[in-house]
Amino acid sequence: MITQPTCVLLVDDEQDLCLLMQMNLKRMGINAELAHNVAQAKQKLASRHFHACLTDLNLPDADGISLVQYVTEYYPNTPIAVITAYGNMEIAVNALKAGAFDFISKPILPEALQQLLEKAIVPHETPVVEGNQLDEQMLIGHSMPMQQLKTTLRKISKTQAPIFITGESGTGKEVVANLIHRLSNRNNGPFIAINCGAIPVELMESELFGHKKGSFTNATHDKQGLIQAAHGGSLFLDEIAELPINMQVKLLRAVQEKKIRPIGGDTEIAVDFRIISATHQNLENMIQQGKFRQDLFFRLHVIDVQLPPLRERGQDILELAQHFIRKICQEWEIPPQQLTTSAQQFLMQQPFKGNVRELRNMIERAITLCDDQKIDIAHLQGGRSSMLHATDATIATSPMEIQSSLAVNKKQKLPEEGLEAYLEEVEKNILINALEITHWNRTLAAKKLGMSFRSLRYRLKKFGLDDDQSNE
User: Which of 88, 155, 187, 444 keeps 20 to 30 A from 147, CA to CA?
Assistant: First the structure.
């Protein structure tokens, strides 16, 4: 609830509506001053500080969007929301793009007005998130593209406008979405992240919208959907391009009306959430192909955030590498490692098609292979080749069951899980097999695998196999 003495500016040429809203705000403990055109609004803004501004878009002397732009430029600490005609989403979206904090549709319900202003006006007692400190913790790097990105995120986090994040796979889209949430005045609410490509199509509606008991076979109890779980916070839809067409229709309604209907439900449930979506695919091409709805794209694509690929971030590569080394060594409880000069040069020359995710995997493999505190080029290069050589050496002395299992599953698991996941499973099977052959004597297992005991220990920690079964 808003508890501090506040004052908002109402701008509308319908005097009766202004008076009605003024009375409703008075009941909420909020004072309101009135202006009936853009000129009056500018005079009022110059005369005193307002905690928020609420303006109609159809004003007699100028377009309301021009007032939005004016307030955004000259009074950036005063959030401005717009009043729109019911169902006129195109104008509302244009206002958000111009810098509006949010919008509210006529007829204006008191509870909707209060909800909007509670988001716009942050009480004095609410702790302010230290943006600079937070984005430095979550977004590693000081290159020009990252500095520009951080500035953009601090700015857009103040609005309620939908955010659309694009970027290559592995650039950190969920990290950015989470940072936007934590920098916003919704940071006390939940951050719900959903990978649209990871939910089976037949379960999609139930997962997103929830269901009522008995609405379908095996619906033995009411289930809250993930959209409702984001109430009061932010909803992040990753890989939005994977959302089926029928779910796109339902999502569009949920975003526009801020209401959902669970499967088997008789009534709609009001939900208050800010939507952030992301993809590495070209949605405009998918629209042309009929695979993605243009109206949903228009509604989600209000503020565009593009993440730079790692290869364009210069020295950030080494800064990230050092960050991952510290983090992994701490997690594995091992002495800190250092990159040699040649290893640093090697990293700076890599294309990193998998971006930050690929760099993290490379560093993790290098630490696994490193026998001292110096990570060199051989360790950075040796991740895949080491695993594959170990596969050949171990299978030759493994039981027939292991050979058969790997051979049968290889064709199926490689396309399903990808190369990285497949190689990790192969590596884990090799470790377990060697340990079983040596009755979990890790020293003998390391010799059998042709690696140092330390390297084996790192790998066991990686896969959670470092238990008390060893007897060396």
Answer: 187
Where does the chain hold its CATH 1.10.8.60 domain(s)? 314-462
What single string gives the DSSP state of each residue in 102-164? EEEESS--HHHHHHHHHHHS--TTSPPP-HHHHHHHHS---SHHHHHHHHHHHHHTTS---EE
CA-nearest of 93, 86, 90 to 109 is 86
**Above 60 in pLDDT, residue 162?**
yes
Cα–Cα distances in Å, from 452 out to 291, 427, 442, 472?
A: 52, 16, 10, 14
Of 37, 122, 117, 34, the residue nearest 77 (C-alpha): 122
How many residues would you count in the chain?
472
CATH of 132-308, picked from 3.40.140.10, 3.40.50.300, 3.40.190.10, 3.40.640.10, is 3.40.50.300
The answer for residues whose C-beta is within 8 angstroms of residue 68's C-beta and 6 or more apart is 55, 80, 82, 95, 98, 99, 100
Grade residue 219 by pLDDT with cuts at 50, 70 and 90: confident
